[in-house]
Each structure stands twice: as structure tokens, then as C-alpha cells.
Design brief:
Length: about 190
């Protein structure tokens, strides 16, 4: 069996999950983001659900949509999917609480973990290897600025007109995975 030449990076969320694909045929193992960016396909998808849906229906939709998007022969086919796990220690946890507001904390964090479980279930049903990894401990604004500088693109717009930050986060995470020796795909798929 020939290994799939694609990996995907997923920034999970219950409202929006961003999936960005990378082509390993255009990649050389490196610790340089500017070189790793060659593997990035400026092609991504956003899986979304709406708060007016029942929680069980939202989780089911995420699971089915990731399976349909990333399985063999699908538009975002990937041999490995790297799934960011939230970092809730120290400053990252406090930043999440501040960003979400006082009324949205433990319940929303619980829903994020349920969404991650639903995504993993869909990926596994699709026959894709899932590699969960801890979120890089780098300020999100710095991550997004790095992607904007390396990848000049017309990024997807959000409901208020700004960029869809989940896509920028998934791009950064994919680049980070390709440059982080402990996570590089060679460790998983036998890429030279």
C-alpha cells in the first residue's frame, strides 16, 4: 500500500473546526517555517455547527463531516491528521477564560473536549491515523501574524468581516508539526 502523500492539520471547535491540508511531495524535513510552507495547500475547509442545534446533533454533524471530508478519496484526504489539543495550563487557561468571558468557561471547555472526541471518532471511522498534539505555547496573535507573513492569501472571512482565525491557527499548527522533529510525519508514515 502506498502511503498517502497528504497530512491535515485540524484546529478543533464546536462552532467551527478548520481543516488545512499539506502535500508531503512538496516538503523536505526542516525546522524552517519558510521551507515548510511549500507543502501547504491553500485549500481548506471549515466544518461548522450552529448553537441552535442540539448538542448531540452538533457533535454528530462534526463527526460525520470530518469523516466525509478526510477519508480515502475524499476532497481533504489525509493519511495522518494532526489534531490540536487545547493547552489549559497556566496562562493559556487564563487566556481562554478571559477570551470566553466569565459566563463561558468550564461548560464551553467541556463542549470543546466533546467536539474533539467527536472529531476523533469520525477520523477513525474514515481510517485516518490521528495524532493529537498539545497546542504550541506561543501567543495566538504571533502565530497568526507568522502565517500572514509567510502565506499571503485571501483568507476566509468571518461573520464580522475579519479573517477566520481558526484557519490561520490550523495553518500554523500544520507548519509547526512539519518543523517539530518529535512530530514530523516521517515518524509515522515512512517519509524519507
Amino acid at each position: 500500500m502506498t502511503p498517502c502523500p497528504f497530512i491535515a492539520s485540524v484546529d478543533p471547535g464546536l462552532d467551527e473546526t478548520a481543516v488545512v491540508r499539506f502535500d508531503l511531495r512538496r516538503w523536505e524535513p526542516t525546522s524552517n517555517f519558510a521551507v515548510a510552507v511549500r507543502a501547504l495547500e491553500l485549500d481548506y475547509t471549515i466544518l461548522d455547527t450552529t448553537p441552535d442545534m442540539l448538542l448531540a446533533d452538533r457533535l454528530d454533524a462534526l463527526s460525520l463531516n470530518i469523516e466525509a471530508a478526510c477519508g480515502p478519496g475524499r476532497p481533504y484526504e489525509a493519511g495522518i491528521i494532526y489534531l490540536e489539543l487545547p493547552s489549559l495550563a497556566g496562562g493559556s487557561y487564563q487566556a481562554m477564560r478571559t477570551r470566553m468571558g466569565a459566563t463561558r468557561n468550564a461548560a464551553d471547555i467541556g463542549k470543546l473536549h466533546m467536539a474533539i472526541g467527536a472529531l476523533i471518532a469520525g477520523m477513525r471511522r474514515a481510517g485516518v491515523m490521528v495524532v493529537p498534539f498539545p497546542a504550541p505555547r506561543i501567543n495566538k496573535d504571533k502565530k497568526r501574524d507568522a502565517v500572514r507573513q509567510l502565506v499571503p492569501a485571501d483568507w476566509a472571512k468571518g461573520p464580522r468581516g475579519g479573517e477566520k482565525q481558526d484557519v490561520l491557527d490550523a495553518c500554523f499548527n500544520g507548519l509547526w508539526v512539519l518543523t517539530e522533529p518529535s512530530l514530523r510525519p516521517a515518524r509515522w508514515v515512512g517519509h524519507p
